[in-house]
Task: structure prediction
Amino acid sequence: MDTPNRTRKNIALLVLAAGMGSRYGGIKQIDGFGPNGETIMDYSLFDAVRAGFTKVVFIVRDEIKDIVREKFQPKLEGKVEVAYVVQSLDKMIPAEYQNAERVKPWGTGHAVLCAKDVLKEPFVAINADDFYGKDSFAAMADFFNNDTTGSHAMVGFTLKNVLSEHGSVSRGVGEADADGYLKSVVERTTIVKENGKIISKEKEGDRELSATAPTSMNFWGFRPNVLDVASEMFDEFLKTNHDNLKSEFYVPLIANQMIQTGKGKVKVLGGGNIWFGVTYKEDKEEVSSKIKELIKKGDYPEVLW
Result:
């Protein structure tokens, strides 16, 4: 595989693969979408290696850890350092906040924190079941290689391009300032298309969203100092949310807190030119078709590894 080293610095890719996939009806992280059964993760790993990333950390549930290792370790051997971290319901959760009835993972922010001990370099956190395209990885590698401000980063995607035709989706909808830094990002958990409008269904009522809002598809670039901020936040989150069996600690909450308290800035990067993902089983055929188009265009070889 052609892997030009675009970055002079160590960068880790943190692959969030511990989600339950309840709406998909299967383990979508390891389902095949490419012409030879490639997973969406395969394409992200390929893009990261060719952009010059030096480490891959998989965040997994215990029951799929061996499957993930068996599937990806041989492909990454000799190319990057690889680590596996289990996100469990009791990891980093004090005994008094644990609940035997909880089955839902604690969210993407908790997943990132589970990898705290293996992250000493800048890292990029992504969803295992989202296809981000090579430009996203190149943009993040260039950012960490050249940025001198100590900022964090988010690849921004246009809201209207990251919805599903098959039901509601959850998205971190952002707002940037004139200098391209994130002012805020809000996790809107039920976004639908209705009558030509993009609507967020909320307790207070329907909220119309801008079609061009810079949106987080969970393609975040962080420096390791974010982990201390996130740890403090998660402690506070648990105090008020441990009794809510569906509560989740999202990465956008961390970004917002840093911005609002002045503990960090987040640059909104370009590069979010392609995105597609699988929320519902009905999305699979469309995703496979789009991958075929990218192979035909020359963005990816027919055989990745």
Summary: The longest helix spans residues 226-241. Helices lie at 40-51, 65-76, 108-114, 134-146, 226-241, 251-261, 283-297. Residues 2-7, 22-26 have pLDDT under 50 and may be disordered.
